[in-house]
Amino acid sequence: MGGSRILLAAFALLLALPAAPQDVQRSPGEVGALAAEAYLNRPAFMLYSVGEVHAVHYADVAAAYGALRLAEFTGDSLLFDRVAERHRRFLGEAIRNTANHVDANVYGVWPLDQYRRTGDRADLARGLAMANGQWERTTPDGLTTQARYWIDDVWMIGTLQVEAWRATRDPKYLDRATLMARLYIEKLQRADGLFNHGPEAPFAWGRGNGWVAAGLAEVLSELPPAHRDYPAIEAGYRKMMAALLREQAADGMWRQLVDNPGAWKETSGTAMFGFAMAVGVRRGLLGDPAYAAAVRKAWDGLTRYVMPDGRLSQVCVGTGQSRDVAYYHGRPTVIGDLHGQAALLWFAAELARVR
Asked: What is this structure's pTM?
C-alpha cells in the first residue's frame, strides 16, 4: 500500500507540473492557424466583471484582434469571416459594456479592425464610441482619466487609439496614443530599460512588460518620425528592446521575472516580446542582426510550448502587483489561456506578414 501511495503522489505531482514542451517546431502560418482554431472553438466569451466594470474580457478582444491580423497578413478570408461571425454572436448575446475603464473600452479594437476591411459603419461607430469615450474626461496634462499608470495600459490604451487612427486617419487619435506612451515611459521605465510591474511591485514581471513592448510596437508601427513624440517613444522602445536582448535565455524564451535568471520560462511574455521585436526589425528600428536572430530564437523556443491543438502551455495566470518576489515565482501556469493565445496570434501574424 505504501508503494501505491508513493506512485499516486508522484502521478499527482506530474499532473501539477507545467505541460512538457513540444519538440516539433512549425511555421508561423501553421501555428497561427492552429491558435486561431483553438480560440474560435471556445464555446463562451471570456467576461470581465470587477466592481463597477463589466465587459467582454480584454484577453478575448486581444485574441480576436490577433486572429484578424493573421487573416489579413495571410489572406485568409475564411478566418476573417469566422472572427466576424463570432463578433455577431457576441452582439447577439448583448453582453454589457460599462465603457468606464481601460479594460472595458479596449473592446473597441475589435470592431475598428473589422471596419477597416468591411466598411461597416456600425462597427466604426462601436469602436469610436470606445475610443472617444476614453477621452471624455482628462487630467490636466491631457491624458485620459482611465490611465492608471499600470504597465498593461500601454497596450490597452495605445492599441485602441491606434486602431481609431487606422480607421479614420484623424491625427487626434495618434496624438492620444503618443501622449500616453511618452508619459508612461517617463514615469515607469527603469534605468535598465525594463518596467516595474507597478508602484507597489518593484519587479519586471514578464507579461506586464510584454504589454508595454507590444503597445509601444503598435504605436511605432504608425507613428511618423516627424511627430513631436516620436524621439521619446523610439528611445524608450529601443532601450527596452536592448534590455530584452540581454535577458533572453539561450533557448529563445524569456522568464516570469524578466531579469531574474532563476525564474521559470513563461510563454505569453515571450510571445509579446517576440512580436514587439519583430515589428522593430521589420520597421528598420532594430538594425543590429542580433535582433533578427533573437526573433527567430523566440519563435523556435515558443513553438515548443504549442500543443498539437494550438493551445499554448506555460501561460502565467492573471497576476496582481506584489512586493513579495516569491509571489511571482509561485504563480500557477495554465494551457490555452487567452492571454497566451492572443500574444501567440500577434507573433504569428507579424512573422507571416514578412514572409
From this structure: 0.92
Task: Provide the Cα torsion 299, 321, 213, 115; round to 10°.
Answer: 100
Rounded to whole angstroms, the Cα distance separating 130 from 106 reads: 7
Q: How far apart are CA 152 and CA 215, in angstroms?
A: 9
CATH number of the CATH domain containing 335: 1.50.10.10
Place of cell 493565445: 341
Count the domains in the chain: 1
How far apart, in Å, are the Cα atoms of 202 and each of 54, 199, 323? 29, 7, 7
Domain membership flag for residue 51:
yes
Nearest partner of 297 among 242, 355, 245, 335, judged by Cα: 245
* Grid cell digits, residue 213: 513592448
135/50 Cα distance (integer angstroms)? 21
Mean pLDDT by 10 residues, the chain (355 residues): 33 32 70 98 96 98 98 97 98 97 98 98 98 98 96 97 98 98 96 93 97 98 98 98 98 98 97 98 97 98 97 97 96 98 98 83
- Write out the residue range of the structural domain in which residue 299 sits: 21-354
Task: Specify if 3 maps to a domain.
Answer: no
Q: What is the pLDDT of residue 26?
A: 81
Between 230-247 and 267-282, two packed helices, what is the crossing angle to 10 degrees?
Answer: 130
The string over 30-41, giving b where at least 16 C-beta atoms fall within 10 Å of a residue's C-beta and e elsewhere, is: ebbbbbbebbbe
Helix axes 58-74, 338-354, angle to 10 degrees: 20
pLDDT at 318: 95
Q: How many residues are recorded in the chain? A: 355
Burial 80-107 (b: 16+ CB within 10 A, else e): bebbbebbeebeeeeeebebbbbbbbbb
